[in-house]
Amino acid sequence: MIALSLAEIATVVGGQTYDIPDPAIEVTGPVVRDSREVAQGSLFVAFVGERVDGHDYAADVIAAGAVAVLAARPVGVPAIVVDDVQAALGALARHVVERLGSTLVALTGSVGKTSSKDLLAQVLGRKAPTVFTPGSLNNEIGLPLTALSATEETRFLVLEMGARGIGHIRYLTGLTPPKIGLVLNVGTAHIGEFGGREQIAVAKGELVESLPEDGAAVLNADDPLVRAMASRTKARVIFFGEAEDADVRAENVRLTPIGQPSFTLHTPSGCSDVTLRLYGEHHVSNALAAAAVAHELGMSAEEIALALSEADTLSRWRMEVTERPDGVTVVNDAYNANPESMRAALRALVAMGKGRRTWAVLGHMAELGDEGLAEHDAVGRLAVRLNVSKLVAVGGREASWLQLGAYNEGSWGEESVHVSDAQAAIDLLRSELRPGDVVLVKASRSVGLEKVAAALLENTAVSSEGQVSGR
Description:
Elements (H helix, E strand, L loop, with lengths): L3 E2 H8 L2 E3 L7 E2 L3 E2 L10 E3 L12 H6 L4 E4 L7 E3 L3 H16 L2 E6 L4 H13 L4 E3 L9 H6 L8 E5 L7 H8 L4 E4 L7 H4 L2 H8 L1 H4 L6 E5 L3 H4 L8 E6 L6 E8 L5 E7 L2 E6 L7 H14 L4 H9 L10 E4 L5 E4 L6 H14 L5 E5 L9 H14 L4 E5 L2 H13 L6 E4 L2 H11 L5 E5 L7 H8 L14
Parallel strand pairs: 4-5, 5-6, 6-7, 8-10, 8-11, 9-10, 11-12, 12-13, 13-14, 18-22, 19-20, 19-22, 20-21
Antiparallel strand pairs: 1-3, 2-7, 14-15, 15-16, 17-18
Helix pairs in contact: 4-11, 4-12, 11-12, 13-14, 14-15, 16-17
């Protein structure tokens, strides 16, 4: 974080200082909420969680080098005490962002936020120092912590914004007002909480509503609900996609023999060829989104194409591809799942596995509400239509819906199976995998199917192609 005195921080957040011998002492290290991440000069933010109360670690973090604690009560060591720790963290983030003057890019969407953010951060990083959201820390706590990690050298700040309901993105843009807003798509992720895609569109569109007149709204021309958001912003609109009228578009989209997308990137200032290191055609849209923002910020088509072609995924368990010495390829996409990302992952599996046996080890997709049965059934059916060699549905009721969909589509027990848990899936795969097989592992995060991928890779050496990351 930029250096700020404890007195200035207390003023910004409306807090009172306790046990601070010299209010002129500056926070020069990172702002953290995890006591294990404290460094010399840190400010520790004490949140009260379901199992852990950060206030209990106050003495430890000061001993480890933190200069003070942002707390809800006095803790016997240097502290700035506020009524609402979360609100204070947000106020501090807004203060720092306004003082820095970095170009702030915010992005949202139902699918592909983290992959697009990782691509965009790597592309912009070629041009100037860039700070971006680590992993999926895109909520009311993770977003301000990311913003506070910016320094005087930071020119671009790329922030992923998630939403669990209407008003969430409006709140986040209030903490960190963006100059450029990117909306990727409107899908069915969290549809059970929102109540429908139209409501999801209302929530995602809060991002473009927050933009200033001299800002830019970067919208997916291929998604009608996103395209319609052009009427909700006073900023200039830039479209990306495969549509003919898109300002930044892809032509001649194809897949390499191992399933990596290749295309010609067209921008208003020129065109250039791109071959991604990522897996699956769905990444074309993510790459175009990153390209549209980068072009808006002054990068040429050639610079963007080179950066995209050399970019990897920076976040774990998103189409993370590892090849075992025996030729079995494990695709770990177990971080999360929704109907759109599930379909994209299955198509990527089939593209990667041409001429090889393919396994789809899938678990339930959370937060689908009344759409749960239909969506799980549809994914099971799609696995059969794509000729996936074997579907392994893992878990309880929702997994049985996956298997039922496959069965009703024509998989009479040989191409699909329902197992109770991750260990049962591991046992099945260990007994039946053959050299050269390709295994996709995917489910909502709560299912924990990353354990299956880890078990399949246990005690194996990674080839030179290993840990090539995607989604």
